[in-house]
Design goal:
This protein is mostly helical. The protein is built from 9 helices and 2 strands; from the N terminus they run αααααβααβαα. It has helices at 2-25, 45-71, 79-99, 110-127, 134-154, 194-221, 226-248, 256-279, 287-305; strands at 191-192, 254-255. Strands 1-2 form a two-stranded antiparallel ribbon. Helix 2 runs antiparallel to helix 6 and helix 6 packs antiparallel against helix 9.
Length: 310
């Protein structure tokens, strides 16, 4: 009996030691970075990209709401409401400008987000949007939606990005058939302007976010083989090019020829990465985000090939 108990005890001790060894060799998740004074969670990775895109969207929608309300020349909008809308637009643009500076990125912006939220509430009380046109109300709902997502990001939550970037349903985000008869109607010297340019900007912002999500999924998975390391470098390079294209899309106009060259290069790179992902069975968690990347690049390619609207 004593021998049996001793054997069982030895087995239990060995099992405990084995479990301890497994735990000690498992990689620990990276610690969250927080501000020592406030406890605010730092903006990093996909959360940073989402905040950057949302700040730009907030500024864009606030400016659209202001311009549409002013164009209606209705006293219901109120001078005070329009003035505060201009302040909101300027402050959101400033935050977006700071977040767009990757050489010195701000990691703690909760106080700025709270200030923007307070200004949104002031505008909502002063402008009486419920009495204005449906178009103005839709634009303002987009402002409220962007502000809500920014508040949740600043609180440390993960936030999904809307797929089309707008709740304004009477404005198609992408043209359904941009190239009649399958022909390339782009002509040298033409530019992306107005609605085409706005749609291209939305797609480029979403591409930056999706490529960041794909890269982070791969980095979390890890991988020590040479194909995995090479593919990880390709994902990093693609994300950098997507960010460059997004910054270029902030211009007043874009030359279709030059932009088409950059988009075609991204399209070819995205397809090559997709083949390596699927043919090699690498990083399966990246596949869904990369499918979205392919769709976005194809839409951008369609936009730069579409016949200019005259």
């Amino acid at each position: 009996m004593a021998t049996t108990r001793g054997s069982w005890l030895a087995v239990l001790v060995a099992a405990a030691l084995l479990a301890s060894a497994c735990v000690s060799t498992s990689p620990a998740p990276p610690p969250e970075t927080r501000d020592a004074a406030t406890g605010e969670l730092a903006l990093e990775g996909a959360r940073y990209e989402s905040m950057r895109v949302l700040a730009g969207r907030l500024a864009e929608r606030a400016a659209r709401t202001r311009d549409d309300a002013a164009a209606e020349r209705s006293p219901r909008a109120g001078e005070e409401g329009l003035s505060r809308l201009s302040d909101l637009t300027d402050r959101a643009r400033e935050l977006h400008r700071r977040l767009d500076n990757y050489s010195d990125p701000p990691r703690y912006v909760r106080s700025e987000v709270r200030a923007l939220d307070a200004l949104v509430r002031e505008v909502d009380s002063a402008a009486r949007f419920a009495r204005l046109s449906d178009r103005v109300q839709r634009s303002w709902r987009d402002v409220l939606d962007a502000m809500d997502r920014m508040n949740r990001l600043a609180s440390g939550e993960q936030v999904d990005m809307p797929s089309d970037g707008s709740s304004t349903r009477d404005e198609p985000v992408f043209p359904a058939s941009p190239t009649p008869s399958g022909e390339d109607t782009w002509r040298s010297g033409s530019s992306l302007r107005d609605r085409d340019l706005e749609e291209f900007r939305r797609a480029s912002r979403e591409l930056a976010v999706r490529s960041t999500l794909a890269l982070e999924a791969a980095e979390r998975t890890g991988g020590s083989s040479e194909p995995e390391r090479r593919l990880l470098r390709d994902l990093q390079d693609f994300r950098a090019r997507a960010r460059d294209l997004e910054r270029q899309s902030d211009a007043t106009t874009l030359d279709r020829g030059q932009t088409r060259t950059a988009v075609d290069r991204l399209h070819d790179e995205a397809r090559r990465v997709d083949r390596e992902l699927r043919d090699g069975g690498l990083y399966p968690r990246v596949w869904s985000d990369w499918t979205e990347v392919l769709l976005l690049v194809r839409r951008m390619s369609d936009l730069v090939r579409a016949a200019p609207v005259r």
